[in-house]
């Protein structure tokens, strides 16, 4: 679908986007787009704007239209939203919800008290959101902790799923069989290059739940071939002493999601009915010391890689003395760089075509795409 003046009706015309939004800070620059922190002049609402030159879209119209088609369908309390779309003579502008509560791992490390029940409540929110996506016929295909952000700095802030760069709408013309995702979180059937379904997301949620309860990934090897072999065989363990104080119910929950056979794997519906989520089997025992220590060891690199963008945003917010954030009065803005990470869906962190500096999201040591993901249908996305 060409992105011109006769394009889709959901695009609003804007001769100069700066008449509507005041640009504050560049959050990230990629090969095909730039993401900026901006303030809507009428409401003082902060947003993130993805600015895409039309020249960069020549020959890639289908890719960006697919991404927008996914984003426009999504309205869920735990999913970062696309709020508006503007088009000028030279650019396309995606107006994204701003999320400023920081990364999942950072929040856990900073807590003094953390339990299975906390992990269970986090996973429930993720399951609710992914169930919503699946009911809409959307498969995320790149669920991982780096794509899970807190909405605000509030202690009881909700968790948000972001980054829909690898998402796919089922039944949109092709069977999903391309190897997309991030090593360590990707399902066996994807690595086997077999046709796959929404069950790949359920596997990834199982991996995330595993990490939330011990602080380290179930699959790891410096050698990609050996890592893939572990995943293909679904070889993982509940190692002592890290799992000694974790309930059998939690382990059972994970085993039902990290099931090698996608046909036997729990769906989001089934996972939401598991006693560890729906019942009272998640323990209240404090596991913070062990989990946070392992997170620091295994995911330490994510912090310094996000530091530049976070610091830039916080500096600007302080300079502007912005006492209110994206939802209006009474909500605090971030107060430290480690809390200031901002992430929008549509900024793909699993694509070979982008480097660490290409967008405003953090990139961990595990955040590398599969060796053959350049063949993914989304690999040329903006």
From TrEMBL:
Region named Disordered: 323-346
Annotated compartments: Cytoplasm; Nucleus
Pfam family, one: Pkinase
UniProt family annotation: Belongs to the protein kinase superfamily.
GO cellular component: cytoplasm; nucleus; postsynaptic density
SUPFAM superfamilies: Protein kinase-like (PK-like)
Top-level taxon of the source organism: Eukaryota
Listed GO MF terms: ATP binding; calcium/calmodulin-dependent protein kinase activity; calmodulin binding
Keyword set, alphabetical order: Allosteric enzyme, ATP-binding, Calmodulin-binding, Cytoplasm, Isopeptide bond, Kinase, Neurogenesis, Nucleotide-binding, Nucleus, Phosphoprotein, Serine/threonine-protein kinase, Transferase, Ubl conjugation
Feature: compositional bias, Polar residues: 323-338
Residues annotated to bind ATP: 55
Name assigned to this protein: Calcium/calmodulin-dependent protein kinase I L homeolog isoform X1
Location (main, coarse): cytoplasm
One of the protein's GO biological processes: regulation of protein localization
């Amino acid at each position: 679908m060409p992105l011109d003046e006769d394009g889709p009706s959901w695009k609003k015309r804007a001769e100069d986007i700066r008449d509507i939004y005041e640009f504050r800070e560049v959050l990230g620059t990629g090969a095909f787009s730039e993401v900026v922190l901006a303030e809507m002049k009428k409401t003082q609402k902060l947003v993130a704007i993805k600015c895409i030159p039309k020249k960069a879209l020549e020959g890639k119209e289908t890719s960006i239209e697919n991404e927008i088609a996914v984003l426009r369908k999504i309205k869920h309390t735990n999913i970062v939203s696309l709020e508006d779309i503007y088009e000028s003579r030279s650019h396309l502008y995606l107006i994204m919800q701003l999320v400023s509560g920081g990364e999942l791992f950072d929040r856990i490390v900073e807590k003094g008290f953390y339990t299975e029940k906390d992990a269970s409540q986090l996973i429930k929110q993720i399951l609710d959101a992914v169930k919503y996506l699946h009911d809409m016929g959307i498969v995320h295909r790149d669920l991982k902790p780096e794509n899970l952000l807190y909405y605000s700095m509030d202690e009881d802030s909700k968790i948000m799923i972001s980054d829909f760069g690898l998402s796919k709408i089922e039944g949109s013309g092709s069977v999903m069989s391309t190897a997309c995702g991030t090593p360590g979180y990707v399902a066996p059937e994807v690595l086997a290059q077999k046709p796959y379904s929404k069950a790949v997301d359920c596997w990834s949620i199982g991996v995330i739940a595993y990490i939330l309860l011990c602080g380290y990934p179930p699959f790891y090897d410096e050698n990609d071939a050996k890592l893939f072999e572990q995943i293909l065989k679904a070889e993982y363990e509940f190692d002592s002493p890290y799992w000694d104080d974790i309930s059998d119910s939690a382990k059972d929950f994970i085993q039902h999601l990290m099931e090698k056979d996608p046909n036997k794997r729990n769906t989001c519906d089934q996972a939401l009915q598991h006693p560890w989520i729906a019942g009272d089997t998640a323990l209240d025992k404090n596991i913070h010391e062990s989990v946070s220590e392992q997170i620091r060891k295994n995911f330490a690199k994510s912090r310094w890689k996000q530091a530049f963008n976070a610091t830039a945003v916080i500096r600007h917010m302080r300079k502007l003395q912005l006492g209110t954030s994206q939802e209006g009065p009474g909500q605090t803005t971030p107060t430290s760089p480690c809390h200031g990470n901002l992430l929008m869906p549509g900024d793909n962190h699993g694509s070979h075509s982008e480097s660490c500096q290409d967008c405003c999201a953090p990139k961990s040591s595990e955040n590398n795409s599969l060796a053959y993901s350049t063949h993914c249908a989304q690999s040329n996305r903006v």
